[in-house]
C-alpha cells in the first residue's frame, strides 16, 4: 500500500512538473512564434533604418537611426541628428571585444572628462562600454533571434504574471558579470512583450545660450556655442531605477515576425521611442564599418 502511495505521489509530482513551463520550453515556443529555428539560424546579418525620438523633461528631440549587425559579435548603431547648427553623426558598437566609437559633427564636442586617464583606465572603461553595449543589443535581439551568443545569458523560469493585462511567462536572464534582467513572453502568442532591468537613471543636461545672428545670415552660418563641461559620472550616488524595453508593431516578412517599434521606459516614463522600417536580411556589409580604428 505504501509503495502504491509513493508511486502515485511521484506520478502526481511528475504531472505537475510537466504542466509547469520551464525556461527552455518558453524560449523554444518564442523562437517558433518569431519564425522557427531554421529561419532564425539563416540570419547571419541584418540592418535596418528608422527614427528615434527622446523625451527631455517635456521636450522631444530625435533623429535617424541605423542598426548594422553581423553575427555573432559585430554591431554598429549610427545616429544622425540635425540642429540649426548642423548635423551630428555618432556611431557606437563593438567588433568582438573592441569598442567602436566615431563622431562626425559640425558641433564641437564637450571636453572629455576622461582625458587624463591612464592607458589602463581607458582600456577598462572601454571594456565596460563594450560589455554594456552587448547587454543593450541582447535586449533588442531577444525579440528578433531569442537568446543568442551575442551576450551569453543563463535563463531560468520565474512565474506566470499579468503584464499589461496579458498572462505572460516571465524568465530571468543572468550574465557572468552580474547583469540581470527579466523577459516577459506572451503566454498566448508566445511573442516577447518586454525586457526589464535595473540601472542608474537617465540624467540629462540642458543649456540656454544667446547667439547673435547677423542680419541676412541663417542660424546655421553662426558657430554654435561651446558645449558645457560634464561630470565624469552624473549618476554617481543615485539609486538604480527600473528600465523597460517594450516590443510592439510586430510584422511578418521573409518568414520572420519581428517588432518594428521599441519603447524604452525609465522609472515608468517613456524615454526613447524607436520606429524601424524594413529589415534587410544578410545584406552585404562593408567590413570597414566595423573597424574600431576608423575615424
How is the quaternary structure best described? Answer: single chain
CATH architecture designation: Clam
Percent helix, as a range, is 10-25%
Structural domain count: 1
Outline type: globular
If helices are DSSP runs of H or I spanning 4 or more residues, what is the number of helices?
Answer: 4
Euclidean distance between termini CA atoms: 78 Å
Summed over residues and divided by their number, the pLDDT gives a mean of: 86
Descriptive overview:
With 295 residues, the protein is α+β, with helices and mostly antiparallel strands. It has a single domain (40-203, 223-290), classed as outer membrane lipoprotein receptor (LolB), chain A. The protein is built from 4 helices and 13 strands. The protein has helices at residues 2-19, 23-34, 37-41, 119-145; strands at residues 45-56, 59-70, 74-83, 86-95, 98-105, 154-163, 166-174, 180-186, 192-199, 241-253, 256-266, 269-276, 280-281. Strands 1, 2, 3, 4, 5, 6, 7, 8, 9, 10, 11, 12 and 13 form a 13-stranded antiparallel beta sheet that branches. The radius of gyration is 23 Å and the shape is globular.
List the keywords.
single chain, alpha+beta, 41% strand, 295 residues, 4 helices, outer membrane lipoprotein receptor (LolB), chain A
Entry summary:
The chain has helices at residues 2-19, 23-34, 37-41, 119-145, and strands spanning 45-56, 59-70, 74-83, 86-95, 98-105, 154-163, 166-174, 180-186, 192-199, 241-253, 256-266, 269-276, 280-281. It has 295 residues and is an alpha+beta fold.
Q: Helices, strands, pairings?
A:
Layout: H1 2-19, H2 23-34, H3 37-41, E1 45-56, E2 59-70, E3 74-83, E4 86-95, E5 98-105, H4 119-145, E6 154-163, E7 166-174, E8 180-186, E9 192-199, E10 241-253, E11 256-266, E12 269-276, E13 280-281
Antiparallel strand pairs: 1-2, 1-12, 1-13, 2-3, 3-4, 4-5, 6-7, 7-8, 8-9, 9-10, 10-11, 11-12
Amino acid at each position: 500500500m505504501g509503495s502504491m502511495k509513493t508511486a502515485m505521489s511521484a506520478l502526481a509530482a511528475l504531472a505537475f512538473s510537466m504542466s509547469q513551463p520551464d525556461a527552455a520550453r518558453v524560449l523554444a515556443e518564442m523562437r517558433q512564434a518569431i519564425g522557427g529555428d531554421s529561419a532564425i539560424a539563416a540570419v547571419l546579418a541584418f540592418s535596418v533604418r528608422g527614427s528615434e525620438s527622446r523625451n527631455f523633461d517635456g521636450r522631444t528631440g530625435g533623429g535617424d537611426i541605423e542598426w548594422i549587425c553581423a553575427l555573432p559579435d559585430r554591431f554598429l548603431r549610427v545616429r544622425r541628428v540635425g540642429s540649426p547648427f548642423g548635423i551630428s553623426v555618432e556611431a557606437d558598437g563593438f567588433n568582438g571585444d573592441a569598442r567602436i566609437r566615431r563622431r562626425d559633427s559640425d558641433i564641437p564636442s564637450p571636453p572629455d572628462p576622461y582625458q587624463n586617464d591612464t592607458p589602463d583606465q581607458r582600456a577598462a572603461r572601454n571594456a565596460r562600454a563594450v560589455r554594456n553595449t552587448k547587454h543593450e543589443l541582447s535586449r533588442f535581439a531577444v525579440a528578433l533571434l531569442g537568446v543568442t551568443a551575442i551576450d551569453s545569458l543563463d535563463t531560468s523560469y520565474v512565474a506566470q504574471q499579468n503584464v499589461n493585462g496579458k498572462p505572460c511567462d516571465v524568465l530571468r536572464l543572468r550574465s557572468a558579470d552580474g547583469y540581470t534582467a527579466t523577459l516577459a513572453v506572451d503566454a498566448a502568442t508566445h511573442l516577447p512583450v518586454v525586457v526589464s532591468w535595473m540601472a542608474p537613471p537617465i540624467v540629462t543636461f540642458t543649456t540656454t545660450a544667446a547667439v547673435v545672428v547677423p542680419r541676412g545670415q541663417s542660424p546655421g552660418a553662426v558657430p554654435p556655442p561651446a558645449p558645457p563641461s560634464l561630470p565624469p559620472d552624473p549618476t554617481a550616488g543615485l539609486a538604480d531605477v527600473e528600465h523597460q524595453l517594450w516590443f510592439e508593431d510586430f510584422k511578418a516578412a521573409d518568414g520572420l515576425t519581428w517588432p518594428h517599434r521599441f519603447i524604452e521606459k525609465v522609472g515608468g516614463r517613456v524615454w526613447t521611442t524607436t520606429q524601424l522600417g524594413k529589415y534587410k536580411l544578410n545584406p552585404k556589409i562593408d567590413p570597414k564599418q566595423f573597424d574600431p580604428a576608423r575615424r
